[in-house]
Structure formats: structure tokens, C-alpha cells
Design goal:
Layout: E1 4-11, H1 15-26, E2 32-34, E3 48-49, E4 59-60, H2 61-74, E5 78-80, E6 84-88, E7 94-98, E8 102-111, E9 115-117, H3 123-127, E10 133-134, H4 137-140, E11 148-152, H5 156-166, E12 171-175, H6 185-193, E13 197-200, E14 203-211, E15 215-223, E16 228-232, E17 235-238, E18 242-244, E19 275-277, H7 289-310
Parallel strand pairs: 1-2, 1-8, 2-5, 8-19, 10-17, 11-12, 11-17, 12-13
Antiparallel strand pairs: 3-4, 6-7, 7-8, 9-18, 14-15, 15-16
Bound molecules: NADPH dihydro-nicotinamide-adenine-dinucleotide phosphate.
NADPH dihydro-nicotinamide-adenine-dinucleotide phosphate binds next to helix 5.
Length: 311
């Protein structure tokens, strides 16, 4: 199979990937971006984005990603549907296979494949996604000001999300499946001392309740002793972890214990020269669109510098 040669290959189409494409195109790197499994990334699963600077009235997440895409296209990036299915970073140029059939030979690769929030896998949870079910309190919490909500999980993310929601909402239930929190001691103390957070210990979600007009109206829980009971809520937030989409690269690229790609210092450089990582796939902490966009910019600048060093 003859490989197509590419100066700058970008994998992923969230804020990190598109911003990398915008910068790389303006720098004359003729970037080719593959959109991956979810064109537009995680923001297309949210509703209104109110915290991305430059949109005073807020913007629909899907629309914002369409704007990023249009900007990258206008500046000369090539955007293609397709998913990286195999990579070989042991040789130069770097080898990337798309959709199991097309082979690319790339001088630089920017990995911006994002992360995927974990969901419980309940049909009712899926039904109300974007209508009261969310995996991002920072994105969607604002819409539940003065209302009652629930957060699933007992780790640091769940505690942070519960604290954030507690500052906006009337009442926050934490649905915790064991009788202990996994979170750090400091975070545990915060939630245990928050007057409007109630922890529902040893509980699992049986069903998210609601209707397609009102969205989420409640949740049915199952206690470890088998008892079923309901709580009235308007928002149901998942905080049971994220999975960085790095599995494909793990044979070549260093990742931390949770699978996030490790980058060097403040740069986007991975342990393989010419391979850069941007956005949520390398960010276990901030996970915000504006941070992802900024790291996409860094990756394109790092790729440009690297290409110059090859000459
Ligand atoms: P964690 O894996 O640490 O916690 C996941 C939580 O969700 C656990 O309480 C787990 O329960 C629960 N859970 C998992 N699956 C289910 C399920 N199917 N049903 C019900 N509950 C479930 O993920 P986090 O996202 O909280 O944190 C990831 C990493 O990032 C951690 O290392 C964390 O310390 C770090 N982090 C640090 C922060 C900070 O320092 N400020 C902020 C946020 C994250 P169980 O305990 O029973 O397994």
C-alpha cells in the first residue's frame, strides 16, 4: 500500500484538534485533520457553552465546533472523516493507518483524541442526555441554579463537582456505591461539611426518571440492602471518571497510571520526537474547552518548531 505523505497530521476534532489545525494552516504546514469517532468531540454532547470567551450570549456546543471547523477550513486545513486504527511510531516518517485501509506517512502527528466521560450504561441515562443528564458540572451546572441535583461517584471529580454544584443549587445528593469515598481526605472533608450536600451511601442508580418534555425529574436508587427509593431532582451528573482516548498510542507513547499522555514540561512534546499531544487526552485536571484550545495552539507551534529543526 502506498502511503500518502503529510507534513502535519492531526487526530481529533475537538477544540484542541481544530485549534492545532488553525495554527498549523496559518504556519503553512498544510495540516490534514481526521475527525475521529465523534466529529466535534465532547462539546457536541453538551447544550449551551457559556464559559468560552468571545460568546457573550453563550453558544450551542455543536455550533461552536462548527465555527472552529469552518475557521480551520478557511485557513487551508484539510478535514477528513476517519479514525486512526493503527500507528507505528518506531520509524520515520511516522506511520498512521486510517479506518483500517489508508496509510499515511507523517512528519509530525498531533494527538488530540480527547477523553470520554464514563456513563453508567442505563437506557434512561442515555434517553435524557442533554436534558438533565450531564457529565460536566462546570459546563452545565449553571442551568440548575436553585434546583436539586444528584452527582454519581465518590472520587475527587465527584467531590469537586458536588462542591461546585452546592454553590449554585439548593440541594446536592451524592450517590456513592460504597460506604467510603475514594476522594482525597481534604475533598472528603469539604463535602462532608457542606450543609447542602447529602451523601446517599451504598446506593446505585436503578433508573433516571423523567419525561421528554420536562427532562429529568427524579432518580430511583437501590440501596445495598435491596431497598428501592426515589429522590426528586432536576439534574443528574455523572462523575465516575473519564477514559482518555490514548489506547492506540500506548505501545509507543508514555502515559500516566490513568492513561493520560505524558507531555514534557509546559510543551506538548511526547516521548517520541515529532509526536505531540493536546487537549483532554493529556489533561487529567482542567478538561475545559478553552484549555484544550490553548494546548492545541501549543502543539501546532511545537510541530512547526520541530519541522524547522529537521531542515
Ligand atoms: P476515580 O476513579 O478516582 O473515582 C471514580 C468514582 O466513581 C469512585 O468513587 C468510584 O467508586 C465511582 N464509580 C466508578 N464506576 C462507578 C459505577 N459504575 N457506579 C457508581 N460509581 C462508580 O475518578 P475521578 O474522575 O474522580 O478521578 C480521576 C483521577 O483524577 C484521580 O486520581 C483523582 O485523584 C484525580 N483528580 C484530582 C483532582 C484534584 O486533585 N483536584 C480533581 C479531580 C480528579 P469506587 O470508589 O467504589 O470505585
Amino acid at each position: 500500500m502506498n502511503a500518502e505523505t503529510v507534513k502535519c497530521l492531526i487526530l481529533g476534532s475537538g477544540p484542541a484538534g481544530y485549534t492545532a489545525a488553525i495554527y498549523a494552516a496559518r504556519a503553512g504546514l498544510q495540516p490534514i485533520l481526521y475527525e475521529g469517532v465523534q466529529p466535534g468531540g465532547q462539546l457536541t454532547t453538551t447544550t449551551v457553552v457559556e464559559n468560552f470567551p468571545g460568546y457573550p450570549e453563550g453558544v450551542d456546543g455543536t455550533q461552536m465546533m462548527a465555527d472552529f471547523r469552518a475557521q480551520a477550513l478557511r485557513l487551508g486545513a484539510e478535514i477528513r472523516p476517519g479514525l486512526a486504527t493503527r500507528v507505528d511510531f518506531s520509524q520515520r516518517p511516522l506511520s498512521v493507518e486510517i479506518d483500517g485501509e489508508k496509510l499515511l506517512a507523517a512528519d509530525t502527528v498531533i494527538i488530540a483524541t480527547g477523553a470520554t466521560a464514563k456513563y453508567l450504561g442505563l437506557p434512561s441515562e442515555n434517553k435524557f442526555r442533554g436534558m438533565g443528564v450531564s457529565a460536566c458540572a462546570t459546563c452545565d451546572g449553571f442551568f440548575y441554579r436553585g434546583k436539586d441535583v444528584a452527582v454519581v461517584g465518590g472520587g475527587d471529580t465527584a467531590c469537586e463537582e458536588a462542591m461546585y454544584l452546592a454553590s449554585l443549587c439548593r440541594k446536592v445528593y451524592m450517590i456513592v456505591r460504597r460506604d467510603v469515598l475514594r476522594a482525597s481526605k481534604a475533598m472528603q472533608e469539604k463535602v462532608l461539611n457542606a450543609p447542602n450536600i447529602e451523601i446517599l451511601w451504598k446506593c446505585q442508580t436503578d433508573e433516571v426518571l423523567g419525561d421528554l418534555t420536562a427532562g429529568v425529574t427524579g432518580v430511583r436508587l437501590r440501596h445495598a440492602d435491596g431497598e428501592l427509593f426515589e429522590k426528586k431532582i432536576d439534574g443528574f451528573f455523572l462523575a465516575i471518571g473519564h477514559h482518555p482516548n490514548s489506547d492506540l498510542f500506548k505501545p509507543w507513547i508514555a502515559t500516566d497510571e490513568n492513561g493520560y499522555i505524558v507531555t514534557e514540561g509546559r510543551s506538548s512534546r511526547t516521548c517520541v520526537p515529532g509526536v505531540f499531544a493536546a487537549g483532554d487526552v493529556q489533561d487529567p485536571t482542567y478538561r475545559q474547552a478553552v484549555n484544550a484550545a490553548a494546548s492545541g495552539c501549543r502543539a501546532a507551534l511545537d510541530a512547526e518548531k520541530y519541522l524547522v529543526s529537521l531542515k
